[in-house]
Amino acid sequence: MNVSIIGTTGYGGAELLRILKQHPEFKIKSIHSTKEDVPIWNEYPHLYGILDKSLKGIDADQIADQSDIVFLATPSGISGELAESFSGKNIKVIDLSGDLRIPAENYLEWYKHAPANEALVEKAVYGLPEWHHNEIASAEILSNPGCYPTAALLSLAPVVKENLINPDCIVVDAKSGVSGAGRALSRTTSYAEANENLRVYKVNQHQHTPEIEQQLMKWNSALKPITFTTHLLPITRGIMTTSYVQLTKEYTTSQILELYNSVYEKQPFIRIRPENSFPSVKEVAGSNFCDIGVHADSRTGRLTIVSVIDNLMKGAAGQAVQNANIMSGFDETAGLGFVPLYP
Amino acid sequence: MNVSIIGTTGYGGAELLRILKQHPEFKIKSIHSTKEDVPIWNEYPHLYGILDKSLKGIDADQIADQSDIVFLATPSGISGELAESFSGKNIKVIDLSGDLRIPAENYLEWYKHAPANEALVEKAVYGLPEWHHNEIASAEILSNPGCYPTAALLSLAPVVKENLINPDCIVVDAKSGVSGAGRALSRTTSYAEANENLRVYKVNQHQHTPEIEQQLMKWNSALKPITFTTHLLPITRGIMTTSYVQLTKEYTTSQILELYNSVYEKQPFIRIRPENSFPSVKEVAGSNFCDIGVHADSRTGRLTIVSVIDNLMKGAAGQAVQNANIMSGFDETAGLGFVPLYP
Amino acid sequence: MNVSIIGTTGYGGAELLRILKQHPEFKIKSIHSTKEDVPIWNEYPHLYGILDKSLKGIDADQIADQSDIVFLATPSGISGELAESFSGKNIKVIDLSGDLRIPAENYLEWYKHAPANEALVEKAVYGLPEWHHNEIASAEILSNPGCYPTAALLSLAPVVKENLINPDCIVVDAKSGVSGAGRALSRTTSYAEANENLRVYKVNQHQHTPEIEQQLMKWNSALKPITFTTHLLPITRGIMTTSYVQLTKEYTTSQILELYNSVYEKQPFIRIRPENSFPSVKEVAGSNFCDIGVHADSRTGRLTIVSVIDNLMKGAAGQAVQNANIMSGFDETAGLGFVPLYP
Amino acid sequence: MNVSIIGTTGYGGAELLRILKQHPEFKIKSIHSTKEDVPIWNEYPHLYGILDKSLKGIDADQIADQSDIVFLATPSGISGELAESFSGKNIKVIDLSGDLRIPAENYLEWYKHAPANEALVEKAVYGLPEWHHNEIASAEILSNPGCYPTAALLSLAPVVKENLINPDCIVVDAKSGVSGAGRALSRTTSYAEANENLRVYKVNQHQHTPEIEQQLMKWNSALKPITFTTHLLPITRGIMTTSYVQLTKEYTTSQILELYNSVYEKQPFIRIRPENSFPSVKEVAGSNFCDIGVHADSRTGRLTIVSVIDNLMKGAAGQAVQNANIMSGFDETAGLGFVPLYP
Questions:
Q1: Which residue of D has its CA nearest to B18?
Q2: Interatomic CA distance for residues A50 and C154, integer angstroms
Q3: Among all residues of chain B, which has the CA nearest to that of A197?
Q4: How many structural domains comprise chain B?
Q5: CATH code at D36?
Q6: Rounded to whole angstroms, what are the CA distances from A146 to A7, A97, A150, B155, D48?
Q7: What is the pLDDT of residues D222-249, one digit of tens each?
Q8: What is the SS3 assignment for C116?
Q9: C38-96: per-residue pLDDT in tens?
Q10: Which chains touch A (3 or more CB pairs under 8 A)?
């Protein structure tokens, strides 16, 4: 099957190239960007001699003619329009941006710019594969979840769905590596200012907040607004969410783990850690895993849930390919068997 | 005034040397360790040509004879015994370890080894200078607060004391640089395993938990056990605590800031950030500042409080010297005017 | 084909697991260490759920019975003895240590401990695949080159063999990430002391010096001792060698590049960069590539040669598998198609 | 004495503020930049509450009226013009840029833009304090040496001046932290691309080359062009130069050290390490020291010289203040007694 990528010069796009280059079923047909006719290795010298393609301009008709799937690795605000340009063109669209994830009114409030076409947003399937396998399988337009929401939702799902927690007191303290901010230059992601530093940003204002809440409320309509905080870590890849919830009654860690294990038993990319073991972000680097550890504290009646992903993999390109596999009828894990790069 | 340091080969000890070498009032009389007769620059080449002293063995009588103050930069379990050996010897003792901070029964539960002499613990003044100035001024034995407790307590004090928050739902999500773990070698603090990583540790089991709770309860007896989580950051210096509390009624961020500003108005080392500004850990590196930023979220009624310190300075050696200044009748800021090293 | 690994708890061993787990031809039969009966994920949590094997003790007969190839990822001093224990046991041995690389008299001088059995050293094939393909193909005992020698030799070979340089003035300034020092704990590789640092070590005394010189002299007997300096970089993976040689007559950069391109034309893991492009270490991270860039300086008549590898891949486990492929008659690149992990 | 700073928003300017804020003799009168009326803490939050000044526009007359010394922490190309605008205005000028360091013809070739006024360049004193104390003492316009040249020249001076080495074979392999590239944003200094990386840049083309050669040739007119290579380290502060020279006859390391010790005996900021000890960059962080270690290799007859500085201190702002001290008749070390920040 032929695939194309738009927005190839960003980190999400580059990671798609890394995965797709080694994928057994997909073939990279063309790569696109606003920079035309530049060999991709000029932008990414690590691809020198590996991928002999040049960036092309964006012509929706031509892309739709030649490819079965197009990945939009473009920023929010641009993806929505691009997705629309592929409407009715017999090509599946997988959008990695936030444009198709939440309704227009929420979008405007949190993203601070105009939302995408409403019908399109409605049509798009929000694709968290562990929970939406069937919808994904038949999707034409897929909205790939955000990096933070992926880590937060996968780790909160069991206790939220099973109603084990107080619905009005969820705190998600999230930490992300710098690549999550994309390849555009900024002061806070410059080396001298990010290194040996930890910075909190968008306190109570991160645009992934409504995305997380929307899905949580689908699982449990009693859910109230959550507290969601984001920190910039001095690492390149990786997200950790440390979530705090109030248990409705006394549970032991091992009871909670039993639930998590049973919920995720068949999921190839979820690894529930045994009692007293917690994942660290490096233990999933370069892979599509989401690792989860929990601890129920009898002193406070609160449960601490730790979840880690590689933000460019399970948090972006890896999950996009996982979705593409499902949409194409392939094994969900095809081309995603990366063992974490450690150390 | 003459001062001596025991436990000079650890990072807290080395930081005491950096401060005291430049201090206008204190003179480093002798430095001590279990390694005898080793020039300090052998252990710390950055001191080559700056401090021409060798490590000596520990003789309490001799130290008490020659010095007015002794700093114990030794590990928990050892400090307590050393402190006792100086009892009645006409020398002020400042202990940087956890040995004199909490009562015996708590100590045993959280530190997992035998507590120090009870009378000594009782006699020791817990010295958070912004809150205990008078007790510190007359202390003979001073227990220097832990790094995490310093950041957490300074940032929680105003809302806890003023009763602005729900006393049974405090979550402190804390992150520390690697130097906080000391100079002893371990796998988790080795470069290849700490770099490009974020690791959660001692989940709901960190020994600083009772220290924080004890002080909070002195300020507000209604306080219930808190949730306290610690993460290991891939940085050398710096702590951030991100704390979550439930406000008892609606407050704006600016109202909360007004409170913080008025509480800390006269404190030279506390910097309350203006609205929409949050401190990052690098902005206090090498200095004795504790910077605090807050945001009240009207969606959830919760307050987010961010606090940063340099764990070796305000979290250890800097605060110890601040206490020594107060105990000696000097200006609290003497020898502590370090401008943060940025970038 | 079945393979076993001894010394699995080190970083070289762990990297072998990462590669072999995904290899199309080799099957990991057993993993060995002095730590017996420990699940490998206890040592390396990133392998949780991926590799369900436990470490076993070392029984040469049993290993030889069950496996076609054994990888020795053990330290120098131990590998030699292990290699000997497999003598005559109908199993191919690939040793990643320095034990079989240089003659006894050199070994003692540079390694400062007793060398391995001389006959074994003589029998072992030094396996730099780009230069020793045929010897490797028929080897029974293979000595895998050191990390620094791999980067240095591959980048110096063309000008040394073709006699383009002054044979008595070669300077190799080498820089390595911390994983090159192995997983044993040490002060210089602890996070707080390696981070934000650059350290020079073993100045003119690194044990890889005779290994480099020996091979260079095989290519050009006029070669004189070289100057070789090693630095510890604050990164986990990656080596760069910056080499300086005096050209015997005036050459342009493009003439030199022509030579390098023709010499390495058919080598799948060597990437010669075009004029004015130089490789950086991150551009080969996680892959088996060795990237080389050169610049001939007309002001000085000197040539600067820059070479980068991932020390755990082309500098250790990757090259070992490349050698195993050749020894087994597989395509040299089997299981080694890793695209560099960037960023 | 009153001092002003132009170009305060760059890292060199910020470091000047850190030093001058704590200086016993100089008072920061005004700070200037193209950004007018912005409080400095907006640009540098670490100065919040420490320095209550706002950036002002640049009015040479006013600055000259109010200040005794002006520091130009502006980029090359701008400094030269600014320096000229202060001509004849009864104010001492210290320029941290490259504009006044080398003659016009060299400047154009290496800097690739128009040089500063020739008379000005000629009048400016090149101020390496360890070697030009007297000229500095009477200078009106001072050209502060570059970061790389400072490390290279201080470490090469003894053997070059004393004619101990072959004058046509000097190789300086230099490595710098990211802050050396300034605060302007660029891809190569963004966190995700600089972290876990080592990059070589401007191979044989760095603009500091002629500055180094010019001074070396003043010391020894037989000197031939040198080879000078620069690498970008994943650290914020620090430079190491590893230099390779050919000794004209056999010298032991201890003989060379004797020379270095005698040459630099009275220099407060030069620390010559004892035999077998080499400095690492972190051992001078935040301080004005230049630490030097050497090793003479009897195998090759070559001498390896390692030199480290903090590029923002001895490589920029620290040395500028050292020069200002000398120009003002103060003790050279006034306000520069920073103990290195370690770890």
A1: D339
A2: 20
A3: B282
A4: 2
A5: 3.40.50.720
A6: 16, 7, 6, 32, 35
A7: 999 999 999 999 999 999 999 999 999 9
A8: coil
A9: 999 999 999 999 999 999 999 999 999 999 999 999 999 999 999 999 999 999 999 99
A10: B, C, D
